[in-house]
Structure to design on (1079 residues):
């Protein structure tokens, strides 16, 4: 029966191509608008590491001075200072932990005419790669020993490795960065989580680009590699350079804690609170703000990675879809009402109201499928146009498999929803009246 | 009251010319009750439409209540229709979304009466047909006979000079048909001229005068009972 | 006119009119908010930075990989500057620490009264040893530009972010000294904490945006200081001759590479490019909403045309009867237009309520501002007119239905 209705539905849509085209376009346009905005929202709010995101935590301590303090006001200083970072690294808080800061420097390009090439990367601990499940193509991260010896080693990202060394495996080779020579000990495989969640506050654009290199934290400090990310100083202005920052209460470090399981989180929170209270007794951390422990998704929400404009666009686009839906109801009403004689005959020949319902709903669903196809094409076109607008959008505005399915689901649901009233109307047709007025 | 001389109506569609009426002639005096009969396709409907100023004719003359309607534009014809004529259709043609009061009200609205005058006329007309008590009801709640009576009330409310009826009893059972005919005769006795198109030979016999149309022309036979029965 | 019967007839046959009214309501609600947002975003994106003829200005980061002493860095900086100034097509150039709309810079909190615990304002600080007013092209409306004597040098051991002289923007002045118009000669204190240095305001510029160019007044709080930074990788802002920016940019880069023996890393930026990057999201948003708005109007209009045509075809007989009963063409036209107006008004009234509701939601959840009433009024008017326009053709066709339809049936 379903096949029969399917065939009927397709044939009926073809019988009045203009009306069908109008319905398809109306539906497709609504679907395209909502899917484009939804896809962008989806990519931007995507959980970049779903297996682990509930267990990776950012501690937030307001260690600023009392000057300008408004109790309860959210701190703009989401990073940590060196003293707290050092203490918490040594505290063995959580199952694992890491600290990150951004470095901007330059390397010697293999093409001598290009002179020096800018490079942007981070200083971090070896635990970074384990905590964030970073895959390696060649080599591996440094060892604890390397850190203790402040060895001049580094790990390259895949694109950076190709930029400096071409297609070859560069492990073991030397790369000159800034004023020092480093040995390349590892190259990452393709790893580009969207957004770049480990280093959101300092690390440039949230979606575009990638860290070129990773050096051991201790090495960076020893070589005085400057912190080029955001720095907030609420006490006295620090002396210049990384040493000055280490000496001060300025915040400039991104800290992450990995919990062995979500059950461990309350315990970690307790440890955090205990540490802060302890520090207060030592005369530091004068503000009495609540400490926070945010997992990856909460952290992205806290930083408002998904801009308000994206959310507004999505709401308006779905409102637009609602309009298209109501419009389609009208069109279907017109279409189905002209078929009253057909319904009358079918009913007279034995079709129950349920059968009429199934027939016409199937027709509406066919419309939904066609609308979905056209809507999908339109969505992709819209996304392509959007991707041309900013560098960020070039990375974000792409349809993925999940959204493709959602496109069809939305289109079919919309058309079936729109078809409910007209179909119900069609079922109400009394055969007698229809047959008489021939 | 109504005079047509040498009237003809030609329909042209693509390559085909249909002569619905040719050399048609009819004179209806004031106060008469005239029936118009003829087989299907004879031109009865065309005659009625032209008489009712619903369509224009191709050539000839038509005087309605002394007015030469030939060169009247659409607006003028609408006005004339509204003031001088009353229509009664076979299918009643009441507007289903309006109650009886509002249905009778329709032609009066185009006349420009104030609301008191309209109300008086509507109530009087519905009383005349015996349905004043059901003013707020809707057509779907009435029987066929009652609906036709409302249609008659509608036709009468504007005090027309001529009532045009197109098969008024065609959709009614014998009992209702009889009561409608009695109503029409009653109206006619009070002075309203009535021109009625009908299939029914019995009704033709009841009327004062019968005009028989065959092939778009008035046939010579004025009252030939046997031919009518045979047709 | 026959308003009441038309209205009660509509009530008896609610589905189609309600559908049209809902479409009008939805469209009005979305359109008013969308147009308002478009206005806000375009307004934000077109704010002047304070630099006239932005398309002629570019800036260039220059760095070497040498380990230099303070004096060597200063000498290198001076050499770079001379090389740049010697390039034909360069009108003026100076080193600078940050650029407006570049989304990267420094913010300092300053106080008017050294005893107050909360800062008076957070301002961005533009540092240069030569006149930024000249190279930027800023409009100095009070006081004077810095002189050679005012220039301080960054202390190699400390970070002298606290020079004694400053030029501020008007917006910052109004924030620091509310209600006053003259700021020249007044003072403020740098930073937070007990021991801070004082600065004297020697001049006021009409406007200068900060690097983050935040919306609202925050983006207009700027301070210029006469400070020579000591850096291995200075940035120079260059104003080229009108229309010569791209050529000058290329020439400056090659001149720098040629002049210096060792390899350099050079990165070019343009103010126009920064503007495009800074307002990329605003412009994308505005364009998307413009397209949606146009589609909204088209779809609603087609919905009205469709529904009205449907009614007309469904009521052919009735129209013929009315004509038979004496209605003129214009009466039929008026009937349908009246119907259309009733529906449009219903749609517009509910649309206005919906618009306010939607705006409330966006204000409370997504940081939008309140929709001005004019949008709703103008929008309502526009949709009533749209409804009339869309219904006109089908109504006219209805009026052309022959009265003979009453008897003939078609």
């Amino acid at each position: 029966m379903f096949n029969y209705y399917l065939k009927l539905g397709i044939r009926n849509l073809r019988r009045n191509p203009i009306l069908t085209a109008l319905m398809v376009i109306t539906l497709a346009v609504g679907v395209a608008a909502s899917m484009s905005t939804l896809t962008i929202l989806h990519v931007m709010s995507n959980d970049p590491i779903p297996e682990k995101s509930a267990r990776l935590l950012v501690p937030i301590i307001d260690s600023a001075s009392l000057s300008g303090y408004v109790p309860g006001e959210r701190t703009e200083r989401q990073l940590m200072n060196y003293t707290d970072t050092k203490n918490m690294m040594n505290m063995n808080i959580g199952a694992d932990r890491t600290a990150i800061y951004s470095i901007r420097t330059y390397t010697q390009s293999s093409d001598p005419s290009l002179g020096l090439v800018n490079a942007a990367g981070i200083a971090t601990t070896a635990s970074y790669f384990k905590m964030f499940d970073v895959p390696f193509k060649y080599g591996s991260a440094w060892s604890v020993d390397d850190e203790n010896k402040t060895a001049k080693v580094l790990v390259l990202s895949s694109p950076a490795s190709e930029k400096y060394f071409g297609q070859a495996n560069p492990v073991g080779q030397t790369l000159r960065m800034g004023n020092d020579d480093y040995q390349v000990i590892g190259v990452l495989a393709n790893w580009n989580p969207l957004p770049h969640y480990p280093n959101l506050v300092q690390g440039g654009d949230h979606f575009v680009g990638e860290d070129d290199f990773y050096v051991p934290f201790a090495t960076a400090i020893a070589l005085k590699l400057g912190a080029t990310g955001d720095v907030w100083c609420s006490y006295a202005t620090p002396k210049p350079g990384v040493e000055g920052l280490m000496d001060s209460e300025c915040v400039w470090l991104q800290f992450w804690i990995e919990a062995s399981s979500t059950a461990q989180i309350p315990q970690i929170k307790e440890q955090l609170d205990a540490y802060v209270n302890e520090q207060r007794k030592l005369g530091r951390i004068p503000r009495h703000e609540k400490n926070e422990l945010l997992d990856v998704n909460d952290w992205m929400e806290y930083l408002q990675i998904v801009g308000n404009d994206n959310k507004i666009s999505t709401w308006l686009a779905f409102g637009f879809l609602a309009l298209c839906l109501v419009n389609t109801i009208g069109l279907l009403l017109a279409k189905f009402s002209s078929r009253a004689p057909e319904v009358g005959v079918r009913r007279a020949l034995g079709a129950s109201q349920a059968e009429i319902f199934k027939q016409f709903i199937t027709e509406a669903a066919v419309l939904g499928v066609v609308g979905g196809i056209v809507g999908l094409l339109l969505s992709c076109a819209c996304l392509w146009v959007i991707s041309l607008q900013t560098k960020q959008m070039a990375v974000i505005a792409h349809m993925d498999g999940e959204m493709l399915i959602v496109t069809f689901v939305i289109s079919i649901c919309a058309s079936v929803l729109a078809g409910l009233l007209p179909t119900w109307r069609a079922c109400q047709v009394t055969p007698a009246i229809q047959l008489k007025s021939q | 009251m109504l005079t047509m001389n040498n009237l003809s109506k030609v329909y042209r569609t693509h390559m085909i010319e249909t002569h619905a009426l040719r050399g048609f002639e009819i004179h209806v005096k004031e106060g008469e009750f005239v029936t118009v009969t003829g087989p299907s396709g004879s031109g009865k409907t065309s005659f009625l439409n032209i008489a009712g100023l619903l369509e224009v004719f191709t050539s000839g003359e038509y005087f309605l209540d002394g007015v030469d309607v030939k060169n009247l534009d659409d607006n003028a014809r609408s006005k004339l229709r509204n003031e001088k004529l009353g229509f009664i259709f076979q299918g009643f043609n009441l507007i289903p979304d309006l109650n009886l009061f509002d249905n009778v009200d329709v032609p009066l609205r185009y006349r420009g009466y104030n609301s008191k005058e309209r109300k008086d006329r509507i109530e009087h007309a519905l009383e005349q047909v015996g349905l004043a008590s059901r003013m707020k009801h809707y057509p779907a709640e009435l029987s066929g006979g009652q609906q036709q009576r409302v249609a008659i009330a509608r036709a009468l409310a504007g005090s027309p000079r001529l009532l045009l009826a197109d098969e008024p009893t065609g959709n009614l059972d014998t009992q209702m048909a009889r009561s409608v005919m009695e109503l029409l005769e009653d109206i006619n006795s009070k002075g309203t001229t009535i021109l009625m198109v009908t299939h029914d030979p019995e009704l033709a016999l009841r009327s004062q005068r019968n005009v028989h149309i065959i092939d778009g022309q008035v046939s010579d036979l004025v009252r030939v009972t046997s031919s009518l029965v045979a047709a | 006119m026959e308003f009441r019967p038309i209205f009660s007839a509509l009530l008896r046959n609610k589905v189609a009119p309600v559908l049209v009214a809902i479409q009008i309501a939805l469209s009005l609600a979305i359109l008013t908010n969308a147009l308002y947002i478009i206005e806000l975003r375009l307004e934000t994106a077109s704010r002047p930075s304070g630099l006239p003829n932005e398309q002629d200005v570019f800036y260039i980061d220059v760095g070497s990989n040498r380990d230099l002493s303070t004096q060597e860095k200063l000498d290198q900086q001076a050499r770079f500057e001379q090389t740049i100034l010697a390039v034909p097509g360069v009108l003026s150039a100076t080193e600078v620490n940050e650029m407006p709309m570049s989304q990267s810079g420094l913010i300092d909190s300053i106080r008017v009264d050294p005893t107050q615990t909360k800062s008076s304002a957070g301002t961005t600080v533009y540092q240069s040893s030569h006149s930024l007013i000249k190279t930027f092209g800023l409009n100095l409306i009070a006081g004077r530009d810095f002189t050679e004597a005012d220039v301080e040098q960054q202390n190699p051991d400390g970070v002298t972010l606290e020079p004694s002289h400053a030029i501020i923007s008007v917006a910052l002045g109004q924030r620091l000294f509310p209600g006053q118009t003259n700021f020249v000669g007044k003072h403020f204190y740098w930073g937070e904490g007990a021991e801070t240095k004082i600065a004297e305001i020697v001049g006021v510029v009409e406007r200068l945006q900060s690097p983050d160019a935040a919306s609202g007044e925050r983006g207009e709080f700027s301070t210029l200081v006469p400070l020579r930074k000591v850096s291995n990788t200075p940035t120079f802002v260059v104003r080229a001759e009108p229309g010569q920016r791209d050529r000058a940019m290329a020439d400056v880069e090659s001149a720098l590479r040629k002049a210096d023996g060792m390899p350099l890393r050079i990165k070019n930026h343009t103010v126009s490019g920064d503007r495009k990057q800074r307002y990329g999201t605003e412009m994308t948003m505005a364009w998307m909403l413009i397209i949606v708005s146009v589609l909204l109007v088209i779809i609603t209009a087609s919905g009205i045309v469709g529904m009205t045509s449907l009614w007309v075809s469904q009521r052919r007989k009735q129209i013929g009867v009315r004509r038979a009963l004496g209605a003129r063409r214009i009466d039929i036209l008026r009937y349908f237009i009246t119907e259309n107006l009733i529906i449009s008004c219903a749609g517009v009234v509910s649309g206005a309520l919906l618009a306010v509701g939607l705006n409330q939601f966006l204000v409370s959840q997504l940081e939008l501002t309140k929709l001005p009433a004019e949008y709703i009024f103008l929008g309502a008017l526009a949709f009533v007119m749209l409804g009339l326009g869309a219904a006109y053709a089908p109504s006219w066709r209805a009026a052309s239905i022959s009265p003979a339809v009453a008897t003939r049936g078609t």
